[in-house]
Amino acid sequence: MIQEGCTIDQKVAMSRIFLFNYWCVIEQYIKNKSSYETMLLYEDLCTNPREALANVFSALNISLDNIPQALCATKDDSQQGFFGKRGSNESKHSSNVIDMVDKKFQKYKIPIQINMSMEDFRKLFD
After folding, report:
1. pLDDT, tens digit, 9 for 90 and up, residues 70-80
2. Would 46 be classed as within a structural domain?
3. What are the phi and psi torsion angles at 108 (to 5°)?
4. SS3 of residue 126 by DSSP
5. Taking Cα atoms as reference points, which of 9, 12, 14, 7 lies closest to residue 83?
6. Is 81 inside a domain boundary?
7. Is residue 23 a contact partner of residue 112, using CB atoms and an 8 Å limit?
8. What does the pLDDT look like over 15-42, one tens digit per residue?
9. Contact 93/14 with Cβ under 8 angstroms?
């Protein structure tokens, strides 16, 4: 991607950012997962925050009595709607950008897609 050079095309720039934001973090986790105590997916935190926090707190030996206080942090949308309305799958990003990101994933043989199922996504971490 570095060889592709700079761009002023906002959609191309967004696709590059998504590639790095999605894949680089996942790849580093996979390569170093033996160094981690537990894994927390954002989707799990959104779906069942109490259970997700209980798993993390248990792994870190933190009293589960702290969960109600920790859940207060989820009251506000820290992303301020950037990824759409909370609890929905709506996206503010055009399908054109998503298609470009998926093409980048394919080009670099990265085994993910933007709209892949959570089941397939979880398999990456096994």
Report:
1. 998 878 777 77
2. yes
3. -95, 15
4. coil
5. 14
6. yes
7. yes
8. 777 778 878 888 999 999 999 888 888 8
9. yes
